[in-house]
Input
Amino acid sequence: MTTALVLGGTGAVGGAVVAALAARDVAVTFTYRRSIDKAEALTAAHGARGIAVDLADLDALDAVLGTLPVPDVIVACAAASPGPAFVEQTAAGWREIFAVNVDATAAVCRWRARAGGPGDIVLVGGLDRGQSLPLPPAYAASQGALSALTMALAHELGGGGLRVNLVALGVLDAGLSRQLSAGRRKDYQTFSALRREGTPTEAAAVITWLALENRYIHGKVIAANGGI
Output
């Protein structure tokens, strides 16, 4: 049986990914921070195993990883809140965004890479390298780091059959996207080729395909954003 670890399983996209993987008979373990009710609901509905851990605490994350068998698939859906405007950003807030969005992701990728063997790592972000978007700088910087990490890891790990890709999502009708103002969401809809927001289920379909079906796409940022 294929196994998977999903970071941020109780988020809007993470929950949809857990459901989509479980529907394909994948044995799923997922992390969550505080949303115990959502975690228990995912376990009841899909038989997935939830593990509470603060991804900003790398020591705690390492301890959790040390108890887990190495999965075939890793999907990194966890993301810290985009945060305030740059001039209002604190050093502590900046560090937390990078700790969750970048450092925790890198730690899990390193853990998987050290185990060796083929498999798939799918990172989930919010910035296509070809876009110019009005994003909070701390969040944007963390997303740029993820795309560069994807490119570099692909070259380092590809020879062993471990594929690494990133799905860059557009504005969704749930999750972190709901923190955008109504006006900003309307702007995205106007400039979207589909003229609408996406859904977590649509995002999960792309992520799940990369995790389970893809064999040749490697080191790429796949834009799933409705045509922004």
In short: The CA atoms of residues 102 and 142 lie 6 Å apart.
